[in-house]
Amino acid sequence: MRKAILLAVLTAVALPAADDFEVLVRSLESHYGKRKMGIPLMGLVNFAVKVAKPHGARGLRLAIFEDVGRHPEPESLAKMVGLDWKPFVRVDGQNEQTFIYAKPAGKDWKLMVATLEDSEAVVVELKVNPKELAEWMEDPKGRARGSRGEER
């Protein structure tokens, strides 16, 4: 009995807890019966976002599912995202639905975006600075200009 308890404690300490993005991706993999698509150099992209912090972004993670069948119902998707995420935006199009969930993360905010199209799904988790995001939303074209006033 002591060995079983010790093993359980060591396992809990040794294994990092799954985060919300990983839980959502695993839930979608289970729902679709498919693994997410591998994206070459995605780690490098996330590192660049963390260093450059474009328009207040602090981190970026992406999962793409192709050739999928029926998407989860909105209520099921909300449960997959997690209870501490709050619905922020929902857009229902003819062949596409987009859900954005938000939650505070210290001084920043985390956004979880799920876009469900005919036979594919894209999930993005983004950590953003709300002040810089608001400034960008006020003048996106101006904020996209380089130091010499030209479009990037």
Structural write-up:
There is one protein chain. The protein has 152 residues and is of the alpha+beta class. The chain is built from six helices and five strands. It has helices at residues 2-14, 20-32, 42-52, 74-81, 130-138, 140-143; strands at 57-66, 86-92, 97-105, 108-116, 120-128. It has a five-stranded antiparallel beta sheet with strand order 1-5-4-3-2. It is globular and about 40 Å long. It starts with a helix and ends in a 9-residue tail after the last helix. The relative contact order is 0.15. Mean pLDDT is 77; it is low at 3-17 and 146-152.
Numbering strands along the chain, what is their spatial order in the largest sheet?
Answer: 1-5-4-3-2
Number of strands: 5
| Uncertain runs | 3-17, 146-152
Task: Indicate the mean pLDDT.
Answer: 77
Query: What class would the helix/strand composition place it in?
Result: alpha+beta
In percent, how much strand structure appears in the residues? 25-35%
Describe the main β-sheet briefly: 5 strands, antiparallel
Helical coverage, percent range: 25-40%
N-to-C SSE string, H for helix and E for strand: HHHEHEEEEHH
Rg estimate, integer Å: 19 Å
Count of helix runs = 6
| Spatial shape | globular
- Straight-line N-to-C gap: 64 Å
